[in-house]
Each structure stands twice: as C-alpha cells, then as structure tokens.
Amino acid sequence: MFSERSTDEWFSITVEPLSVGEVYDWAVRRDCGAVVVFSGTVRDHAEENGEVRSGVTHLEYEAYDEEVVPRFRAIAHETRLRWPGLGRIALIHRVGRLELEESSVLVVVSAPHRPEAFAAARFAIDALKAGAPIWKREEWSGGSSWGTGSSVVTDPAHVRSADEAGV
Question: pTM higher than 0.90, yes or no?
C-alpha cells in the first residue's frame, strides 16, 4: 500500500494488522514527556441518528490509496501549526476486512506535556475522520451498508478542534 516515514512523522495505509506497541515505541522521544495513543477498534454495533444497530460482525475499509498519505501529511502539518511544540505524529489506517476488536486506525502524538498531546491527538483523529478519503462498509446479521456518519472530505484547516467546538 502507501507509507511514508521520517524521523518525526509516520503515515501509512495498509492491509496489515496495526501494531499499537510498535507505533508507541517509535513516538517516544527524550524531549517529550507525553505520548497519546488513539486506537479505533471494530465494535459490534453502529450508531446512526440516535439509533443503535447491533450485531455488526466485521467492517470492510476502502480508500483512495494515492490520496490518503498526502491528506495525512496535510493533517499533521495543520496539527503542528496549532501545537508547534509537538514531537512525533503517526497517522496509520488499515484497509480491507477487519474483524471485531481489531484496530482500524492509529493516531499517536508525542509532546513535551500532556495537554497539547491530548489536544493534538484529538484534533488529528477528528481531522482524519473528516478529511481522509477512507470509507467503511459495515456487515451485520441482517445485511450491510456503507458506514454511518460519512461526510464530505474536509480540508484539515477547516476542522475545529475540541476546544474550538466547546467539547
């Protein structure tokens, strides 16, 4: 698939299982006292418009492969503009069929202190969900459909942080 890794940034779209430990270990730096790891995992239900659909058995992710890493790069750039002291940033997403409890996405941010690490990681996952051309198909006992909450691909500069949104 597509991957780009430098000293302080790691972007990837892959069919391989995601290794939380490997990405965490990579993100640790001597000058950073905080590493925040977000791992999105496949759950057994989906929520849409306040309704819960139970019995989800697996997900299938598809991506516009050639555009994912450039979008991840733009998200990391915007994240660093908002929190300039960040150490390392990893944005990694899996595609293909994923079973319950498997990680589908990793966002890992290191920073000198925890407030900016948490805020930057939250912003990065929100920007990834809004701005990366990745789609999921949910399968459940009664059928299947493309994932809930899909939206138009958004430029990361237009994504509001949790603080800006009052969350």
Answer: no
